[in-house]
Amino acid sequence: MKAKDFHALLKSIDAARAIRAGKRKPSRVITFNPLEVKMIRKRLHVSQTQFAHLIGVSAATLRNWEQGRTYPEGAARVLLKVASHRPDAVLEALRA
User: Fold this and answer.
1) Residue 94 has pLDDT above 80, yes or no
2) CA of 21: how far to CAs of 17, 27, 54, 59, in Å?
3) 65, 45, 69: which is closest to 57 by C-alpha?
């Protein structure tokens, strides 16, 4: 590892420590409510396995989202947002 990269890594570790100690605010905060995923799935009247297949993730990933162990990112997050507002449109598009 180059010295420049190593110093950048050390700087980021120091920043993480300061954030954890409450001495510094994080540059971004991701908020996610696991119950939203479960609610969306229930409104579509599909099982975890069916919903996971529909949106292109594993059933384990979907369970992790619903239980709050991990959270969706990127395209999955956008698809869930659309599904929360227009579940009929999502079902129609994904089953076509």
Assistant:
1) no
2) 6, 15, 41, 36
3) 65
